Amino acid sequence: MKKKLSFLERAAAVPHMVWVVMFIVAPLLFVAYFAFTDVGGGFTFSNIQLLSSYSHIFLVSICFSLVATFFCLLIGYPLAFFMSRAKPSTQKLLTVLLMLPMWISLLIRTYSLMTLLDNGGLVNSLLGKLGFDPIAMVGTGGAVILGMIYDFLPYMVLPIYTSMQKLDNRYLEAAADLGCTPLQTMLRVVLPLTVPGIISGVTMVFVPSISTFYISQKLGGGNFDLIGDTIERQFKYPSTYHVGAAISLVMMILILISVAVMNRFSDEKGEMIV
Amino acid sequence: MKTLSRVYMWVIFALLYAPILVLVIFSFNEGGSLSSYTGFSFRWYGELFRDSVALQSLKNSLFLAVSSAALATLIGTFAALGLDRMRNQYLKGTVNSVTNIPMMNPDIVTGVSMMLLFVAVAGILGISDILGRWTMLIAHTTFSLPYVILSVLPKFRQFDPSLREAAMDLGCTPAGAFFKVELPHVLPGVISGFIMGFTLSLDDFVISHFVSSPDFQTLPLYIYNQTAHNVKYSMYALCTLIIVTILALLLLVNFAGGIGDRSKRRKEATK
User: Fold this and answer.
1) Phi-psi bin for B216: left (phi > 0), alpha (psi -120 to 50), beta?
2) In chain B, whose CA is at the least distance from the CA of A242?
3) Which CATH number is associated with domain B54-232+258-269?
């Protein structure tokens, strides 16, 4: 038997729905509108066509974010595994240690890394004391990728760690009993069971990496234009809003497609994670 | 295996904290240098506190964080109530996925899309400078909403409806049963939603970057502008103060009962 709903219960979600339509749906429609119109307001495909001249920027951004995501996974996966096998009290401390950088503004973290790597920074002055020539690090692609890895590593580790925690230790024991070497246990038991965590971690590193502009500005020294930088620049002057909207639209669609594709790899019953 | 795991964790955490530690240490450096430590001093802190723009940005940040979190908590809590009672599963699913869009979209797209909306509305209404305090409030409320709903909705789901019936049997009006029995049950979710919104708002840079104007700066925007061209040592001091505050809050929250982390919430979003 279903109870009749009171007015409050029926109307409670209405303000939220209005808000969402006004400030989430409408803005996205405006992105599409700006992407397909010119300054005068007429319909045009020229903004989208202009994107071909930005293809190398898309390529560089995708490469940088893929490399950064790969290294985050490579570094973060063992870390998550070791963390999940530590004593419960240690685990709690390690989780706090991992989360603290996530709460510190990305600006501060990137800035602190930049001051370390800068020409007059600590790393170079230490190298100088050891008798090496200073290396210009800020302004290289490597520094930008390092910045992405440094900034987003915790976002990779945390979801993997969460799925590792759910992993029953008896699975590992059973695998060892049945003759698996530690490496085999890792590859054939642990890895498949933590795929949802990996998917979530990869998404949480890849999406901010590909859309960043602060990291490339600070650590790239202005030598690298990523998608984020390009979008940010287009929105400084009203005359280029339309091109900026077109780039944003394409990036959003690319990301949504790749997230959807990745989620298909995730177990149907497992957590679908974005 | 045990030593390997310990060494590995030490190395990664050391690398993760090294830049932050260096920044904290050099904020107390007397001379203006990134590489040589010449002596302990509060010089940069003094300079920071004499900077009226920095103090104004801090005030703006706090105003914005409190007001956007309060607004998001108000709208979000009622939304969670409505979603919990909603029988139209199709509508419910649609509302949920639309609400979560800002969580999945890159921040830059969210920021840009809102900016275009505001600019277009300003064009229609003939206002020349719409960006500022109010657009920031709208933007921050919008990206906090999904987090509030995610922390309140499960509380409504867990609530046993027979408790409400019991309250009414004992003479409560339906509204009384809601406010006296159900609301206290969901209150922890409401509070953690508020805290989430508050911290997200304080931390946000990318979305604010697009919907703000120079006359309403928040702390992250101030840091961005100050670090745009050259190294400012008073920024070291500011960053140190922020880090210490976050550390204190995180310890407080962790030992006052865990309020979840962002990624967990993100994950629950699409369950």
Assistant:
1) beta
2) B116
3) 1.10.3720.10
